[in-house]
Sequence to fold (312 residues):
Amino acid sequence: MHAIIVKQFGSADQLSFSSVPEVVPQSGEVVIEVEAAGVGLVDVLARKGFLGVTVPGFIPGVEVGGRIVAVGPNVDRNLEGTRVFAQGQRGYAQQFVASVNGLVPLPEGVSSEAAVALGVNALVAYFSLSRTSLATGERLLVRGASGGIGAMVAQLAVRHGAVVTAMTSLGMADRVAALGVQHVLRRGTDPEPAGPFDVIIDPVAGEEMLALVGTLAPNGRYLVNGAAAGFPSARISQALLQGFPKSPTYSLLSLDSVPLEQRVEAAKALFAEAALGELTAPIAKVLQLREAAEAHRMLEAGGVFGKLVLKP
Fold:
């Protein structure tokens, strides 16, 4: 079969379209014929060697949608032919091995492309809102609201009844406004957010997050769930201490820390909403698997609204 290999840590040029051995399911596993693989910042960070992978030569990609074509020992053969969403490793390939315990059946009306467009981004957004205990009527600031995670946070928060302020670029302002947010702040054009905000959810991080800590309301919560602009500043403790009388809370969220069964149940609920048309995830572009390097370049260049999807 064909897959994308990270030849060496570095630029998108290190992504190589290659032939690799066919996959074989072990006990408790299934083989999925991949119809769509999601492209996310996590893949870019892995390609650069920032996520604990110590040896190049791996296949990136953490989420796929497709159809089960084979099952391993101790797995119900009736699963063959089922359309599913799955998370794991080695997603940029024609076939994907997944644990049967992590499979999420796709309802009618939700394509494999739509599944990965929701997928990890929607799950990160869902658990970010849960972790911050965002309540109806609370004021939320979302950074990077045109990005995959940010757009899902904004959309879910609006449905939750929060008062949402979304930060984005000038060129993406209209698309972000269409998500239903109450306020859109255009970077470089509108004044910086003044707050107060009960919750800030930040998939961007970097040094600019420091100024936003001061906009938190008393008992405000700041959660970082991504690093589009680089990892969170090492000076975050100082910024939090300056607001000590307001008792701010700072936390990080990685989807890896959420138990598998919770992720599966949340994904089922999100896909059910999507099937009813109550939740959408825009797709920026669908590219062929051999175009993975171009997808990474597009993601790193910015200006992408919605999910980039690879189609093997």
In short: The domain at 2-105+282-311 is CATH 3.90.180.10 (Quinone Oxidoreductase; Chain A, domain 1). The helical segments are 41-47, 112-131, 148-160, 173-177, 209-213, 236-242, 260-275, 292-301. The radius of gyration is 20 Å.
